[in-house]
Design goal:
The protein has about 200 residues and is an alpha/beta fold. It is built from nine helices and six strands, in the order βααβααβαβαβαβαα. The chain has a six-stranded parallel sheet with strand order 3-2-1-4-5-6, with helices on both faces. The protein is globular, with a radius of gyration of 17 Å. The protein starts with 7 loop residues before the first strand and ends with a helix.
């Protein structure tokens, strides 16, 4: 949109606190993904990369120098983890003074997903396939089926950006108003969303 020109638009990527997810960090630094962000008006890419991911970011920036920033016009930054939580970073992706609403790309951990849903920011959920039983896949599928998030894949993040940009205004509100057990708080909401029955 013409009125958005010159305003900040942030893509925040988080791997969470408990497990490394280097493949998500690598995918977020791929030139095809950076180009997809640029084509959709993003100005900033912020990575919560964990301890191991710091090397991946540093290596990418050293290899590409300022070339990636100059070629695609993105400010790329990263950090290990914030012990106070990721709410500040997620809220930075919300529309506000000098900013256009961006996106959060998160591993499919329930804590990170719920944080993004509470903030009501467009969300792409990417399961970490290296985890035991790939339990994150179930959460990503459920969130996508209900329309709360896009189910992303580390092998095609540009497609997830394209999809979130087309559905961003049609996402349902969280928590769902039709929750049968709303009085049970978050447990009831999650049970309903995941299809668990008493």
């Amino acid at each position: 949109m013409a009125e958005d020109i010159g305003r900040r638009k942030l893509c925040f990527v988080t791997i969470g606190a408990t497990a490394a997810f280097d493949s998500l960090i690598k995918a977020a630094l791929e030139p095809t993904f950076i180009q997809a962000l640029q084509q959709n008006g993003y100005t900033d890419l912020r990575l919560q990369h964990g301890r191991d991911g710091a090397f991946i970011l540093k290596e990418c920036l050293a290899k590409n120098g300022t070339g990636m920033t100059e070629a695609f016009g993105l400010n790329i930054t990263g950090f290990d983890f914030n012990t106070q939580g990721l709410g500040v970073e997620m809220r930075a992706a919300k529309a506000g003074e000098g900013a256009v609403e961006g996106v959060v790309i998160s591993h499919a951990g329930s804590g990170s997903v719920l944080d993004a849903l509470r903030i009501a920011i467009p969300l792409i959920v990417v399961p970490n396939p290296s985890l035991l039983n790939n339990h994150q896949e179930e959460l990503a599928e459920a969130m996508a089926q209900q329309g709360y998030a896009v189910h992303g894949n580390i092998h095609d993040l540009p497609a997830a950006i394209k999809e979130i940009e087309t559905i961003r205004d049609g996402r349902p509100a969280w928590p769902p108003e039709t929750n049968r057990r709303h009085g049970e708080g978050l447990v009831g909401i999650m049970d309903d969303e995941m299809g668990f029955v008493d």
